[in-house]
Amino acid sequence: MSIIREITSVGSVIDPVTVRNTCLASDADYRSPRIDLVTHMLQAIDHAHHKAHEGAHFFYTDSVAIDSGVSQDYLITAPDTAKWSHLGFEFDGTAITSLVLYEGADRDGTALQVIVNNNRNSATAATTTVYKGTSGGTTDGTAIYRHAGGTATSAERNGINEGSGQEIILKQNTKYLLRITSGTNGNLTNLRLEWYEHTNKT
Fold first, then answer.
1. CA gap 1, 168 in Å, rounded
2. Residue 7 carries which DSSP code?
3. Are 79 and 165 in contact (CB under 8 A)?
4. Positive or negative, the Cα torsion across 108, 114, 117, 123?
5. Using CA atoms, how far apart are residues 112 and 89, in angstroms rounded to an integer?
6. How far is Cα 146 from Cα 140, in angstroms, rounded to an integer?
7. Where does the pLDDT of residue 14 fall: very low under 50, low under 70, confident under 90, or very high at 90 and above?
8. What is the DSSP letter of 115?
9. Contact indicator for 113, 132 with CB cutoff of 8 Å
């Protein structure tokens, strides 16, 4: 059953509350919601969790050792459709590390990366692509997110996570350049991108 869109009381006031099953074509399909038997609380999951069950939630991870003054670029491309990507990310480094996310880059991607569907029973492929490394073009775009921290001897850990109200809904038909830069030699950096794809409702 999908996320609840409509709650109604059918018949008289003593009838149970029911919800419309929006997964089905018929608008007349109503069912009783499930509750936890111990707490009697309504059983529900958030939208991102629902998308994982639906097979529309994806992730990408990478680990790179970067020397001082060296950057690792990732190019994230949102397609020109109304199926928008709701992106969250996490990154960390073992020393001085900075991250900048640019919107509106015109770079080309170097190596197309493998995107994983959270639902391993789903054959649905992501419409958003991720490339490791960039080339060509004339602009990185506009910086929309920046963070820097860490020292030569202590780790830097930071990120934004979908589900926390901080997800970035990527602009369709737009390239995003995510750049991780090290300020220390031999800095082991880790990146995790997570997103679900949802057709925008007008």
1. 26
2. E
3. no
4. positive
5. 18
6. 14
7. very low
8. P
9. yes
Q: Is the pTM of this model over 0.85?
A: no
Residue among 107, 100, 159, 101 nearest 133 (CA): 107
Number of domains in the chain: 2
Q: Identify which of 48-52, 171-175, 197-201 has the greatest average pLDDT.
A: 171-175
Q: How far is the C-alpha of 158 from the C-alpha of 9, rounded, in Å?
A: 46
CA separation for the pair 100, 146 (Å, rounded): 5
CATH number at residue 80: 2.60.120
Domain that residue 23 falls in: 1-44
- Do 38 and 95 share a domain, yes or no? no
Higher local confidence (pLDDT), 9 or 133: 133
Report which residue type is found at 29. D
pLDDT at position 157:
59
